[in-house]
Amino acid sequence: MITEADNVLLTRVGPTTPMGRMLRRYWLPVCTSRQVAQPDCAPLRTRLLGENFVVFRDTSGRIGMLEEYCMHRRASLALARVEDNGIRCLYHGWKFGVDGEIQETPNHCDERFRRAFRAPAFSVREAGGLIWAYIGPKDLEPSFQTYAFFEGPEENRLVFRLNIAANFLQLWEGGTDSSHVGILHCNLANPEWKNKPGFEPDRTDYTSVALANGDNAPDLEIENTPYGYQYAARRQGKPLADGTRTYSARVTPVIFPTGRIIPLAQYQFFVFEVPRDDVSTSTYILAHGPKPFDRVKMKAVLGLDNERLWNEDDCNYRAGPDNLFGQDRSKMDVVWSGLGGLGPEDASIGVSMGPIVERHKEALVAADKAVVRLRERLLESVRRHETGGTPFGLEITDYSKVRSLADTDIPLDGCWQDLLPHNMGPGPRRPAMAGA
Ligand code: FES
Ligand SMILES: [Fe+2]
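That is the input. Now the predicted structure with fe (ii) ion docked in place:
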């Protein structure tokens, strides 16, 4: 059971809070590359951990990130001109480089001033279709972390951003909650629910999300890892051809401070729930696989093709109590949730819980074990950081071999861990639980 005090500790992300201090120790996604695609394109106003920033791409293609408010008299640089390898404030024309260098101050001719000061600029990297930033203490900047989705050709990766009006933790918890998949997402996971005569579920590459196993009360086997934890949702498997009994395992690594890898048969989803502030989150969804994706088809699978609720320009997910969280009840005979697609289903449920979940009022059951572990590990990491220790995973630089596992039938005496040798789980491997 989470106390109200621990709930505050887990969910508040401003600069003076324990969670905010810990999150600031990591590199975090701050926008997508598409949002600042071209040199000298419009600057992007963005929000991270309760602070406002402006991201821009200069004439030479370099990315810069500054505090949103101009260092002179605080006009927003979201209004600025981006030109001649810098960003120029509209108010008095001060111009800054990507590293914060003060290039011009038209209303103040003292060159020594320009040399003596710098605009507040932050370290940024561009990788995997995302712009990443580090906004923590300058002397504690960690190594940059690499993921599998950084690899391969651009067309084998799709990136989406959703700005959702809910605290990051409730969205992240949804991503570690295996037992909702076959229910909330049953249009995709168990399309037979409609059970109409002649109904044939679509099972193309894109809808292979149609998960083989519809058991909604899996046994959860969880183990801590240096970056957080991983868990296997274990269900009854199908016997092998020779009659060997099996269990089915679906494994999700949960990577601090905001990430997880969702297992699918044909590709993987990497998802990061990055707090914009205490009550809003940027969810970054990255599909990554061995073949090129069709963006239009994937948008349809994710339910991101309804412009009434979301578009790629502002990325804001428009669901709240006033529009019944985006639900269309007239479609509920064919769309189980009335929400249409994975993205809206997860996002709307997250928003429907209120801006910050009142966790002390929950009624948890065994199926929520992975959610509980997320809270425990986060609290452990925050407390460790507050007492001078290193938060989980900060020292790991290479996540490129960490994988999820889609539903896989494994003989009862086999170990799912053996299929994921690079996930940094504890060894030695244990025998599988009897009778699973
Ligand atoms: S406020 Fe930006 S130049 Fe004056
Ligand atoms: Fe979900």
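The chain has two domains: 27-140, 146-419.
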